[in-house]
Write a structure and sequence with these properties.
By secondary structure, the protein is α/β, with parallel strands linked by helices. Helices cover about 40% and strands about 20% of the residues. The chain is built from 15 helices and 15 strands.
Length: about 350
Amino acid sequence: MRIGLVCPYSLTIPGGVQAQVLGLGRALRAQGHPTRVLAPCDGPPPDGWVTPLGNSMPTAANGSVAPLAPDLSAQLRLIRAANDEDFDVINVHEPLGPGVCITTLVVKPAPLVGTFHAAGVSGAYKTLGPVVRWLAGRLDLRCAVSADAEDLARTHLRGTYERVYNAIEIPLFAEAEPTPTDGTPTILFLGRHDERKGLEVLLDAVADLPRDIRLWIAGDGPDTARLQRRTSGDPRIEWLGRISDADKASRLRAATVYCAPSLRGESFGVVLLEAMAAGVPIVCSDLPGYRKVVRADADALLFAPGDTAGLARAVTAVLTDRDRAAALVASGRQRAETFSMDALATRYLELYAKVV
């Protein structure tokens, strides 16, 4: 089966959907199915089986800013590549993302499977109801990665959905070489620096954490400069900027605690799976999307979104109770095994066969 995977976001900028698409592509190819990913790339594509569609531009989406490619040249490259490849099926991820995904729906060069990732609210769905429903109607089969993603899509687009899940390439994290450290207890944050991801909540909690800790902050965003100025006098905080996928895996392997303090809008916590596979205890906010991945007090310690004191208590518990931390790691590793990318690829192949 010749399979095309279309991603609306630049593959050279880290992101959850991008990681899912690339991981799925690798797993499908490993199972013997010629697969190509078509997506924007700001620079060289990450692999030889990726067809770059041009550079992206920052675009507001789902309370954040997404690296999309809505320009005409990207659409023309998408149409040409899709026609040249003669795919048996095309899987469009975030199918109503502006740019190349919508173009794929309009031209429909092959049977289409759409995977909906977003959760929460969507202004575009509300204001462009008839248009987005028509576009969604171009899909031959619809998938959603979580109940929250399905609820958002069903509310505005109607239709029926196959429930799939996000997955990870477990060896990439379980076998990564840890970043060298000096033994200082280290908390790791990964994500965009904006209000939705809750970084400021974590920084507020630092005052209530032990003095002998270190906080690694990876990523960037609109709040980076302000938060750096605010914490400039604290030597415990290290700003890493954007890091590669390989560096992410190494940092997860080296961290003492992984903290995900998001406030909302998380349909499925893939980074929590990555942390569990890497063997690091997790402290995260109690969001529906995160509860799809972790079990409270078994795989992670949860706190109410925005609760600075609750976050500090949970992190301190992991840092000071080695037995509890070890139990979280053991349970998390078992949990991560149930979300392997190979199993997800097999599930998608069953769905693709329905529309081919």
